Amino acid sequence: MSDVDQLCINTIRTLAIDAVQQANSGHPGTPMGLAPVAYTLWNEKLRFDPSDPVWPNRDRFVLSVGHASMLLYALLHLTRTAAVSKDYELLGRPTVTLEDIEKFRQLDSSTPGHPEYHLTSGVETTTGPLGQGVTNSVGMAIAERYLAEHFNRRTIRSWITASGCYAATAT
What is the pTM of this model? Predict the structure, then answer.
């Protein structure tokens, strides 16, 4: 692992620590523990274009651990994922800014404690508490498999994290 890789991982961890401390709510442990896995996944495996987060052929990253939502927000911030409108038009700004992270888990924030699809580009589904993201992502994987078989030559992948650990790759 290079010094730059370690710096990126530590930056994800630091953003999680600072956001949870600022909010006086949440859990920094899972984002800190999953930072190396998430960084490697996003940096080396995930087919995702931060400049076009609604690209139909992208891989999906579903975070099924609501208390680890700061991990996803840190990744979206550091990749400078573009914001899109409710009509899926690019807005010309990042979806998660440092100011958004400072408002983590606050009322009317675009960075709520459990990621919500309609609030933040790059959030693939509203998972809520209790692992609903796992079932959402399995449904996405089944639909993506069907679409890939009928419309393209490669399978779209869904990456899932559940219960505080890297759970599976569904293809």
Answer: 0.84
